[in-house]
């Protein structure tokens, strides 16, 4: 079938995707770039254009959306949608088509699935529907952003709302849920309590002060005493970024790589997470912390990694996270411990598709694939991702997993090794070397 390359490229752009190699083939899987988030992924143009209607962006961004319908209803033509489908001007188009009064953000038009009924409370009359706000009063965070932030599915949030009466989002006239900052803070704490083993029925209906008392009594979010770490958190909270960076660098220089990872990076990351859950640190604080810590650790690791790279030593370890797992500090700390065990590390970034992991394993002659999981990735996604990856890789390639995900407390796949902590990495590496020698 003859294909007009320009027409195909234009139609993909209208869905927020850019064909990186327009001449690679109509039905073959090859690289595309999401123009909403910048991620590069593998797909065929035919599947993206005809396989699923009304999808905008990559799998991470894409939700069935009525953006096109609202565009045309507001009097805009298709060319307006195509010309404004880049990350910066999408918000302008969303605002111009926003007849329901949603906040004019690039994400707001993608947050609620069009397949979801306008009101899913009708099937459960025991609960009153969420409050429908007037256009002037609509403010808050959408359901997709909340689900991603706290690590639950949108369906779970809807079930909690119907069954337990919390959360209680406001509804726009168009039916989309918006959550207030207070509810977001409470949801973070609820998720921590659930991860610690508490039942939804025991926590979701409780006021915030009761949840905080429950967290304190059960040790959730409790930091071990450390005046120096407390001072670092205070600097971060006060916005003294330069002072925070210098203090972190001095501690790293004094302690060395191993002690810095175990005594500073790991507990400080937990402290930042607890403060974020309690609402005393904001998302931008967490991002500043992550950037500074990553830079400090990379500078500490670089001399030893450069020396090891020329030796072609073993094992060769590929480090990444699966799609949906966007937290990178855990896998970075694991990389530091593998480096100290004289492994040659091949970090390939975060959220790597499974087939790309398999390709990287073959290209770099990898012995071990190391993956990190936090509680943000649902347990089913962890289990299915590990099962699928194990099937893709040859049997002699080891898969090692670690992190704070509750899913790792259960038995993982038979062909996957759970390494329970950073200090266990050196022992696991030594056992691998002994097994290879035998």
From TrEMBL:
Residues 94-111 have a biased composition (Polar residues). It holds the Pfam family MerR_1. InterPro entries: Cbl-bd_cap, Cobalamin-bd, Cobalamin-bd_sf, DNA-bd_dom_put_sf, MerR-type_HTH_dom, MerR_fam, Meth_synthase_dom. Residues 143-197 form the HTH merR-type domain. Residues 314-438 form the B12-binding domain. Residues 94-132 are annotated as: Disordered. Keywords: DNA-binding, Repressor, Transcription, Transcription regulation. One of its GO terms (molecular function) is DNA binding. Residues 112-126 have a biased composition (Low complexity). This is MerR family transcriptional regulator. The lineage of its organism: Bacteria, Pseudomonadati, Pseudomonadota, Betaproteobacteria, Burkholderiales.
């Amino acid at each position: 079938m003859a294909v007009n390359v320009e027409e195909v490229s234009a139609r993909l752009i209208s869905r927020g995707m850019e064909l990186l190699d327009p001449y690679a083939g109509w039905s073959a899987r090859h690289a595309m770039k999401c123009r909403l988030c910048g991620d590069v992924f593998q797909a065929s143009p035919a599947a993206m254009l005809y396989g699923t209607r009304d999808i905008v962006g990559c799998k991470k961004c894409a939700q069935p959306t009525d953006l096109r319908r609202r565009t045309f209803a507001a009097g805009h033509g298709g060319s307006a949608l195509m010309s404004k489908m880049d990350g910066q001007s999408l918000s302008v188009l969303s605002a111009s088509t926003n007849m329901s009064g949603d906040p004019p953000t690039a994400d707001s038009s993608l947050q609620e699935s069009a397949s979801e009924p306008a009101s899913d409370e009708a099937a459960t009359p025991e609960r009153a529907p969420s409050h429908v706000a007037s256009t002037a009063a609509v403010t808050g965070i959408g359901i997709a952003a909340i689900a991603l932030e706290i690590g639950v599915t949108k369906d779970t949030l809807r079930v909690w709302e119907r069954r337990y009466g919390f959360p209680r989002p406001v509804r726009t006239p168009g039916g989309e849920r918006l959550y207030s900052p207070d509810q977001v803070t409470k949801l973070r704490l609820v998720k921590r309590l659930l991860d610690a083993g508490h039942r939804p029925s025991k926590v979701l209906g409780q006021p915030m002060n009761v949840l905080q008392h429950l967290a304190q009594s059960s040790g959730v979010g409790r930091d071990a005493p450390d005046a120096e770490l407390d001072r670092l958190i205070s600097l971060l909270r006060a916005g003294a970024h330069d002072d925070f960076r210098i203090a972190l660098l001095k501690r790293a220089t004094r302690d060395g790589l191993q002690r810095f990872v175990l005594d500073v990076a790991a507990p400080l990351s937990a402290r930042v997470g607890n403060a974020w859950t309690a609402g005393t640190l904001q998302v931008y604080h967490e991002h500043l912390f992550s950037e500074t810590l990553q830079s400090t650790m990379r500078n500490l690791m670089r001399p030893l990694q450069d020396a090891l790279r020329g030796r072609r030593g073993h094992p060769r370890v590929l480090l990444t996270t699966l799609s949906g797992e966007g937290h990178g500090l855990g896998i970075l700390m694991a990389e530091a411990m593998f480096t100290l065990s004289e492994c040659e590390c091949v970090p390939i970034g975060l959220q790597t598709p499974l087939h790309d992991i398999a390709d990287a394993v073959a290209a770099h002659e990898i012995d071990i694939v190391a993956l990190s999981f936090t509680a943000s990735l649902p347990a089913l996604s962890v289990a299915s991702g590990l099962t699928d990856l194990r099937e893709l890789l040859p049997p002699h390639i080891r898969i090692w997993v670690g992190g704070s995900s509750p899913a790792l407390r259960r038995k993982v796949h038979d062909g996957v090794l759970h390494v329970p902590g950073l200090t266990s990495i050196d022992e696991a590496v030594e056992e691998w070397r002994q097994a290879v020698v035998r």
